[in-house]
Amino acid sequence: MSTRSNRQPACRNQVPVIEAFEPRRMMAVVVAAAADTLADSFGVVTHLDYSGVYSTRYTDVIKPRLDELNVRHLRDGLKSFASTQMVRARELASLYGVKMTALVTSNNISTTQTNLIANLAAINAVEGPNETNIYPWTYNGVSGVGAFDSGGSTTNGNGVRGYQQDLFNMVNANTQLANLPVVQTSVAPGGETYANSLGSLAAYADVGNFHSYTQAAYPPEDKILSYHLPYARKTTPGTKPLWSTEGGTGQSQTTPALPGDTDASKYNLRILMEQFRLGVKRSFAYELIDQNISGELNYGMLRFDGTPKPVFTGMKNLIALTGEATQSGSDWIAPTFTPGSLDYTITGGTSSVRSTLLQKSDGRFYLVIWQGVKDFYGNGTPVSPYPTDQTVTLSFNTTIGSIKTYRPMLGTTATTGDATWTNIQSITLKVPDQPLVVEIQPTLFNDNFSNGLSNWTPVGGTWAAEATRNGRTNVYTQSNTAGTSVSLAGSSSWTDYSTSAWVNVSNTAGSVGILGRVQNSTNFYGLVLSGGQWKIFKTVSGTVTILGSGAYSYTANTWHRLSLSMVGTNLTASVSTNGSTFTSLGSATDSTFTSGKVGLRSSGAVTSFDDILVRPA
């Protein structure tokens, strides 16, 4: 069984409307979307049975590049079981878990049903006829829009409307196909009159559809908001989710009226991000690779020779940064959790800034931010002056544990030249005309005991607030020197995290420490200083097992900051005497506990604690 990450299947009950996230200029509590929904929103159009590059480079380019891209969704034409198209589609689904939105190619409903059932292992959605305003579709002897049969019959509908109705009814009536979402027929840009004539098809599709091609002369964000989405709602009024099954910006190295592929990649990645921001559930980039033929305008994410353009790199890295789903066979399962919220502002040069807030199941937030600006004139030449990065201030209403930035079109390592900010409440960002990802790792818990002890539940001992102890103020002290006692705080749902605290012990014969993944007062992991040693241990039903230990010289009545990190089965201990520079003590491996609260431990001495901090690991 494969354990590749970041893909999941699409089925009818997985097409919710994603909230639109607007740029923030005033302090607001923003509810995040699950980060994996961004990775899952990306798809790519292929032509697996075409001659040329798809035929000659399938094995050495098409397959390995799809594997590298890690995208979960293809959009291609539905053909017979033995066709090259579907043989390859089934192979890709089996190898990489990438499944097809199957675009119908037969105007015979029975043939479509046969082909869907035969190739179901490779398919996760079915789409009605393609761009019927420029590729006429004949059904029951009628070309063009046609009309529904007023009695709702599945046999007497005509034209495009009738086919869409019968397709929807056929899929819903078949027990093998009923979980497939049915995507509405598409209208090519420029088909406004046709879309008005087509009218609402919302009753005969689970998902609306539009094609979001943009011109170099317009910022893609403007065209999506003012043109593509309003016309998509002409044929899918109401609140049903929308997909964009084609979209992109033409590019060329030689044609003056088109931008070069490096520059057009910015527009193409912004199309995907803007559509996600505005609630579009899935967006397919047109297309995977340049076909190097007349009329296609080199829309590909790969050049004709198979080398990646920046949009390919950008999509790949956005998936790597935000995806969480793991592959099981040809299916993909994302973590189930309820995303939280973040209180922040973006101020400064924000007039053209767009942003979307995401969160992973481990608590990390990802703010994707970019400028929605015009980069090119109508003749494909760059605007002058060319857009520069806009300076904005990102502020939070609380101290953030750590912040990193990434430029996906460049890579998945932290942005060159930017620091990794720690324990900070405000930073300055340079926002480019391409997506910038800001990873925000908030603190899960922070207590300096200045507001009382209500967060803590002591078990045994004598625990109380103390005004001062050995130079620190507002500390938490356990004063009973007989036996062992603990005090617990936090959430039982915390999984991978680090916990740290200042600790102080009145004599080195006693011990002082911190606890993690606490189930209750007799089941937990711990890190203690005891008798001139550090010890990583676990307590199971009150029985202590030492997992790792070593010498550590310390004196009584001095403060040391202990840190215990728990990631999967790995437990890592470190210590600091100044609170900023930590020295590794050692590590251990154990799988007994996977989640739990934090705690403090005292034994055989007066012990004190201060500034407890818990962060996602």
Which descriptors would you attach to this protein?
2 domains; 18% helix; Jelly Rolls; TIM Barrel; disordered N terminus; 10 helices; alpha+beta; 617 residues; eight-stranded parallel β-sheet
At the first level of CATH, the class of the largest domain is Alpha Beta
Q: Helix tally? A: 10
- CATH homologous superfamily designation of the largest domain: Glycosidases
Helix content: 10-25%
Could you tell me how far the N terminus lies from the C terminus, measured between alpha carbons in angstroms? 27 Å
Biggest sheet architecture: 8 strands, mixed
pLDDT average, as an integer? Answer: 89
Q: What report would you give on this structure?
A:
Helix 9 (261-277) links the parallel strand 11 (242-248) and strand 12. Helix 1 runs antiparallel to helix 10 (310-322) and helix 9 (261-277) runs parallel beside helix 10 (310-322). Mean pLDDT is 89; it is low at 1-26 and 149-156. The protein has two domains: 40-333, TIM Barrel (Alpha-Beta Barrel); 446-616, Exo-inulinase, domain 1 (Jelly Rolls), CATH 2.60.120.560. The two termini are 27 Å apart. Strands 1, 2, 15, 16, 17, 18, 19 and 20 form an eight-stranded mixed β-sheet that branches. It is 18% helix and 36% strand. It has ten helices and 35 strands. It is an alpha+beta fold and 617 residues long.
What secondary-structure arrangement, pairings included, does this model have?
Elements: E1 28-31, E2 33-34, H1 35-41, E3 42-45, H2 53-56, H3 58-69, E4 73-77, H4 84-96, E5 99-103, H5 109-118, E6 123-127, E7 138-139, E8 142-143, H6 159-173, E9 182-183, H7 192-198, E10 208-213, H8 220-235, E11 242-248, H9 261-277, E12 282-285, H10 310-322, E13 326-328, E14 331-333, E15 341-348, E16 353-359, E17 365-371, E18 390-406, E19 421-431, E20 436-442, E21 445-447, E22 457-459, E23 463-469, E24 472-478, E25 484-489, E26 497-505, E27 511-520, E28 523-530, E29 533-540, E30 543-551, E31 560-567, E32 570-576, E33 583-589, E34 597-603, E35 607-616
Parallel strand pairs: 2-16, 3-4, 3-12, 4-5, 5-6, 6-9, 10-11, 11-12
Antiparallel strand pairs: 1-15, 7-8, 13-14, 15-18, 16-17, 17-20, 18-19, 18-20, 21-35, 22-25, 23-24, 24-35, 25-34, 26-31, 26-35, 27-28, 27-34, 28-29, 29-30, 31-32, 32-33
Helix pairs in contact: 1-10, 7-8, 9-10
